[in-house]
Amino acid sequence: MNSLNLNSIRNKIKDTQKLKETIDKSVKISFQKAKDEYIENFLNHPVTKEIASGPDGVNSSNTLSSKGNLFSFIGFNNGSNPIGELESNIKGSFSLERQSIEINKNKIKTRYKISYPSQIDLEKNTSMPWEGGNSWVTAIERGISGFSNYMYKKFNSSRSGTGIQVKNKISSNSYKPTKYFSEIIDKFLNSVNKIK
Question: How many CB atoms lie within 10 A of CB 19?
Answer without folding.
Answer: 15
